[in-house]
């Protein structure tokens, strides 16, 4: 059974990574979502993908240049405020999450997560209901020094190496790890990737496959027919239609 994961929430009528986007995805049946963590100048974790706000608001400042109080005054193009980690926990820690820790503020974010771990209910969430996407080995090692059982998804280079090896039929050259999750897009330079034989090559190594951001109905069908374990999608409205 393929599990569906909402990528930054459902954004048909809401801005990504906001309460409105997450609520819209939850209303469509999602219990597993993904979001991005960054830090403000004064050390507050805020949910935002880009380093600056120019794509989602009239303001173009960098997140790292703001204090929390300043960011609380910002409104995005749809009128929403940004969501801070404490607000996120209050409402959503009962769900499952992928937390994408952005590399340019990862040190500060990890420091703040360590402080949050002092609260038992947050510690439980971080260890048991969250998986992590890290963008470098140093930050991944740092996270695991704080939480030795933190589950980190395969990083981008590992996914690329594994994907190429599986595509050419030599998965052993991809260093595919047992019980690891690898992101695989529907296509690579026009070549369809998400086919049953390719997914089977991961499964033979004990690994799992995440169908990475299929966009069309056809690409979602392709991923499901291929037997992926999870689908990370922006198209939340398609959940339940297959």
TrEMBL record:
One of its GO terms (biological process) is lipid metabolic process. InterPro entries: GP_PDE_dom, PLC-like_Pdiesterase_TIM-brl. Transmembrane segments: none annotated. It comes from the Bacteria. One of its GO terms (molecular function) is phosphoric diester hydrolase activity. Pfam families: GDPD (PF03009). Residues 2-242 form the GP-PDE domain. Signal peptide: none annotated. PROSITE patterns: GP_PDE (PS51704). This is GP-PDE domain-containing protein. It comes from Aliidiomarina minuta. The lineage of its organism: Bacteria, Pseudomonadati, Pseudomonadota, Gammaproteobacteria, Alteromonadales.
